Amino acid sequence: MGKKRTYGGIQPGIKWGPFTMRLPGVHVAISWPEAIQGAFLSLATGGALAPLMMQFFEVPFEVAWSILTIQLFWVWSQTVLFGDAYAAGWITPALPLVLVFLGGVSPGSEAVQAMIAITLVVSFLFIFFAITGLGQKFNQLVPGPLKAGIILGAAIAAFMSEINRVQTLPFTLITSWIVVLVLMFSIPFGRLPNTKAKVLMASNAMLVGFIVAGIVGTFAGELTFSIEWGFFIPQFGELLATVSPWGVGMPSWSLILSAIPISLMIYVLVFGDLLVADSLLKEASKSRQDEKVDVNHTRTHWALAIRNVGQMFTGGVLIPLHGPMWTGIQVFIMERYKSGRKALDSIYSGTISWYLLALPLGFLMPIIGIIVPLLPVALSLTLLLTGFACAYVAMSMVNDNISRGYALAIGMITAFVSPAWGIGAGIVLYLLLIGKNGGAIEGTASKEDKQVS
């Protein structure tokens, strides 16, 4: 059982500096539906990065999986140690940009140093905005329609990423999409009587989609499983020697300077994640007056810097970097959270429980044997929910036809060209189409943003 909070108050925890530590079972109640689903989906989605690290860093699967086990600790630390309400994850939209950058250098130690350079520059940006406090102010200065365009760009990019994947696993992926969307968002399904079966499926929507995908994929011949028994032995020595600064050294200044443009783009994407996170929390707070969620972007910036630097020195560099939120899972937890205290007593019950079992189960060979064939399904479901959430959040932020058209244009530029072009074109078009004063709609958006901040 977690500690009780006063009605409308913040969930108790242990304050240390700007952070708050909340331990599962001590400060927050454990939610087993989240813990069980989170274990499999965190391992499966995290494992999807293993082939990329094997390709670019030229390391065996054992080293790549060892990186991912340490990654799980640093992801979990966002909520447990640092006190953020977000279901932490990677900077997923940055993945295509990072792969392009790494493709410009030789695989192996040179690619590792390139990733170290990106990690250093991005972490410096997090620290700079944390010290100056400009991260939170920057959020308030960006016009509402431009925010909508950035978020819509993330939605378009997420859906675009699934075009090639669905062609390789059509029956598996489309079936899992339908199952998860119906269980989470279907209006007719929501109107059905709340039987035990319905409640059980709705509260485990991601896991149900995962199981159905495994069954359909097996019968369709799209998935095959190979189960081995035993325990996975992490290769920490080889890991530190091949994918960390301890082994390959620090990058040259020229490589660090070359990483600045992509790092600025990555920060823009992190900023977009924070916009989506705030919008989701603000929407959920309307249904949950019993809890005040502590949102602090300065604290989040410090946590992101610590997580990325900590990952680099203890578990090697990570493609595509630690980010503030796993959007698809945040959407899932928010939907559960909005249904009341019986489902989730606190937002932290969901975000902390999600990663609770992932780390210990990641060392069991039978689990790895089940997870590996389902890696594309987990990544696909995550991106699907990310796109779905970004789309409805972006559409809710604009109220007139000009702003809607503007947001779509900026979203398309961001997704098809680059985040940098999206921001640049967004500022120019905002001044030309809406004006620097922004009118009534911009005033409304600014007021809402201040309430979030």
TrEMBL record:
Key words of the record: Membrane, Transmembrane, Transmembrane helix
Superkingdom as given in the UniProt entry: Bacteria
Transmembrane segments: 87-105, 111-134, 146-163, 169-187, 199-220, 253-276, 346-368, 374-394, 406-433
Designated name of the protein: Xanthine/uracil/vitamin C permease
Species annotation: Alkalihalophilus pseudofirmus
